[in-house]
Structure formats: structure tokens, C-alpha cells
Amino acid sequence: MIVRPKKHLGQHFLIDKTVSKAIADAFSGHRDCFKVIEIGPGTAALTRPLIERGDLDLYLMEVDTDSIAYLNKELPQLSDRILNYDFLRADLSEIMGDGPFSVVGNFPYNISSQILFKCLDYRHQVQEIMGMFQKEVAVRVAEKPGTKEYGIISVLLQTFYDIEYCFTVNEDVFDPPPKVKSGVIRCTRNERTSLPCNEKLFIQVVKTAFNQRRKTMRNSLKSMTKGHELPEEFSQQRPERLSVDAFIRLTEFIEGLV
């Protein structure tokens, strides 16, 4: 059975077994969590080395009906684990239960950032995110303060996950080849269970600051400071200079304004 990649689904099928195995091997089972959802398995290029590991409780989540038919034919041992769901719309707790699980995949570029934010919504369950993204996205997620790549997604993901950029993947290992390189990252849940400040306000502060990233924090956050001056450690800084902890302290300051 032949499954042709569909442009509207952002499908680029991985065809290099060495790369597939490297991604599967890089999954760490953080916090001894081996219950895994693979998003968008397609023609099972990554699924097979994940199965071969022998230590994973593996579920497959796919929206493409052609791929679903292929997976059921090729992997009958997983027939009750092949789920026809849209990951972005799925109630993951209902599907996976209330316990911990992890997420892996060769993620469709057109929804990869949304996948990460969905995992953030389930961060109390999602112990590890392991997979391939457009390189630009992978770099942004993993980047540390002080560079132009460091931004909103860097801060929000790094608030609750430790990020490691694992390796770069060239275009020619896909069918069809994308126009850009890919990057594989591993995100493992850190020890931060909650924030000492209002989480919605924290997100608002981060987004407001980076949406005007050429301005100093003093100027970009004027609408939120109610006429008060920011502490010196923030006032003349631009957002890309602030760590996660600094953004938390900044949010605590703004939350305390009356």
C-alpha cells in the first residue's frame, strides 16, 4: 500500500532509517515515563524503531485516513493503539488517562509550535517532548537569553522544560524534501510545578515584551505598570536579555502594583 504525502497536512515522510533510529534512541524516558504518544506517524518510519526499543507503551495519533489504513495493515499489533484524532483538538486526559505520558514525533512544520503549546497545557502530565521540527523552530525553543532567536516560545517552554538541541537533519532524508533543514530537540520536564505569580499575567508580560522587542522593558510594558517605574534590573533591558526567572520576578513586581 502506497501512502502519498499530502501538502495540506504538512507531510514530509522521513525515509532515512539512520535518522529515525537516532530520534527513537534519543528519547530518554524522563522520570521513568515510557507511555508515549507518537504524533503523525505517517508510514511508520519513526514508529518502527520506537517499537524496536522494546520499552515503550506506544500509542499512535494520526489524522490522515490513508496513513491510518497503512498503519493498521503494517502494524496489526498496535491496532487498538492507532488513534484517529487531531492532537490539537484532542482531550489528552480522556484518551491517555490522568497519569504521565510523553510525546514524540516527526512533527508537521505547519503546526509544530501549536503542538508545543498544547503540551504546555498538559505539562502536569507530559514528561518529555522528543522530536523533529523545522530547524528555525527547534533553535528558538532551545535558545538561551541574549540572542535574537530567544523569544516567546523559548521563555514559555523553558519555564517548565529543560531543552536540549540534539542534532540537525538535512532536507534529503524526506519525501518530499522540505525547503529547510530540520532540528531534533528533547524537552524534559523540570522541577517547577507552578509559578509564584499569576500565570496568565506572566504569559501576558512575556508576550507584550517580545511583541515590542526593540524597545526597553520600561517602554514596552508602560501599559501594564500603571505609571510606576520598573526596578533597575529590568527597566533598560530588552526582553531577549531576561531569563525565565527574571520574567517571573518582573511579573511578581507588576502583580504587586495597585
What does this structure look like?
- The chain has 12 helices and 9 strands.
- With 258 residues, the chain is an alpha/beta fold.
- The chain has 2 domains: 7-189, Rossmann fold (3-Layer(aba) Sandwich), CATH 3.40.50.150; 199-255, rRNA adenine dimethylase, C-terminal domain (Helicase, Ruva Protein, domain 3, Orthogonal Bundle), CATH 1.10.8.
- The strands form 2 sheets. Strands 4-3-2-5-6-9-7 form a 7-stranded mixed beta sheet, with helices on both faces. The protein has a two-stranded antiparallel ribbon with strand order 1-8.
Secondary structure blueprint with pairings:
Blueprint: E1 13-14, H1 17-26, E2 35-39, H2 47-53, E3 57-61, H3 65-74, E4 82-83, H4 92-96, E5 101-106, H5 112-121, E6 126-134, H6 135-142, H7 152-160, E7 161-169, E8 174-175, E9 182-189, H8 199-211, H9 217-220, H10 222-225, H11 232-235, H12 244-255
Parallel strand pairs: 2-3, 2-5, 3-4, 5-6
Antiparallel strand pairs: 1-8, 6-9, 7-9
